[in-house]
Amino acid sequence: MKILVTGGTGYIGSHTCLALIAAGIEPVILDNLCNSKLSVLNRIEEISGKRPLFYQGDIRDSVILDRIFQEQSIAGVIHFAALKAVGESTQKPFEYYENNIAGTLSLLGAMRRAGCFHFIFSSSATVYGDPHAVPITEDFPRSTMSPYGQTKLMIEQMLEDMQTADPRWSMTLLRYFNPIGAHASGKMGEDPQGIPNNLMPYITQVAIGRRDCLNIFGNDYPTNDGTCVRDYIHVMDLAEGHVKAWQVCGEKAGLHIYNLGAGQGVSVLEMVRAFARASGMEINYKLVDRRPGDVAECWADPAKAQRELGWKATRTLDDMTRDSWLWQQTNPNGYEA
Ligand code: NAD
Ligand code: UD1
């Protein structure tokens, strides 16, 4: 069985390819490499013994999409390809709407032409905005605070509307919380370009000496230690969540929505301490002003995924920090080109 994985050389997509291969499913990757490197394919092959089929191209290009559906027998699509930097999206809203929204429409159009109606979408906890309570269940009201978040909200709405109008569709919306960590081999991990926006890659780059000091954004939030609380999930747990989602509802017509989180809140200071424990390194940090757009607490109630998909995050915070550190140490500059 073949699944088209858009954005499959990216951070979450590449780890999901490993999980798909382990489950006997063949990933076919489409990626334009705007935020990933071709050498990821070598690593997937080293770990799994299989090299995924790869098409270099853009989801906005209907010619390549039609070609893939003609050349391969695609059972379904897992759609990771997107631009994802929240801050950048406020500077370049056109690029975000064009890539993420127009790209998704182009992909859905090609699927309809090919008669493929099985779609899994990478959504985000960002669709919960500033939640009125934690933990967050899937029925919480949706809102968002950035153009990036808008693209996720709008796409969710498009998928719902299309599924209502044409019940042949299976639309699965997976709302990820904060993926971190790396494959336990240290051969694959997160490889942000430029200055990392997210906490874990920033911490590992401070530890390896690429950055001087972690800025902790705000210590006056209404949380236990004043720093923000998030739901960090190991990227391999997240990857396996996609396999479960495919196996349980990927081909079942309907709208399926799941939180994929560990269900545990961890503060920024707790994360810094956990990383120090795993690495034996002290992280140089300073407390600075809040980052605009951050919410105090955001963590999932993942019970629905456990109940209906039989999926639960199993890896601990120590697994996440240890694997992130191993990846960073063995690949101090990320993937080669
Ligand atoms: P990533 O940037 O590592 O991977 C995205 C991949 O998509 C990259 O390889 C990029 O080259 C490719 N891509 C982007 N636009 C494309 C286009 N027009 N055509 C073809 N390929 C294109 O990001 P990631 O962290 O792996 O995230 C994957 C998905 O999960 C994204 O949709 C993201 O919004 C979503 N998500 C990520 C997080 C997170 O914390 N990483 C959290 C919630 C949701
Ligand atoms: C961010 C995005 C979210 C997106 C997710 C994955 C914002 C407001 N939210 O989530 O929409 O889905 O990334 O891409 O950007 N922190 C520091 N110092 C740093 C970096 C982060 O203190 O250098 C803190 C942040 O203030 C936050 C926590 O660490 O409290 C986690 O930050 P981050 O990894 O960026 O994830 P989110 O903000 O939760």
Biggest pleated-sheet summary: 7 strands, parallel
**Helix content class:** 40-55%
Number of helices: 11
The outline comes out as globular
Alpha carbon gyration radius? 19 Å
Number of strands: 14
Which cofactor or ligand species appear? nicotinamide-adenine-dinucleotide, uridine-diphosphate-N-acetylglucosamine
Brief synopsis:
With 337 residues, the protein is an alpha/beta fold.
Architecture overview:
There is one protein chain. The chain is α/β, with parallel strands linked by helices. The protein has a domain at 2-180 and 232-261: 3-Layer(aba) Sandwich (Rossmann fold). The protein has helices at residues 11-22, 40-48, 62-71, 86-91, 93-114, 147-165, 199-208, 235-250, 268-279, 303-309, 317-330, and strands spanning 2-6, 26-31, 53-56, 74-79, 118-124, 170-176, 178-180, 214-217, 229-230, 232-234, 254-260, 266-267, 285-288, 297-298. A seven-stranded parallel β-sheet has the order 3-2-1-4-5-6-11, sandwiched between helices. β1, α1 and β2 form a beta-alpha-beta unit. The longest helix has 22 residues, at 93-114. The radius of gyration is 19 Å and the shape is globular. Residues 6-7, 9-13, 31-36, 58-60, 80-84, 99, 103, 122, 124, 176, 178-179 line the site of nicotinamide-adenine-dinucleotide.
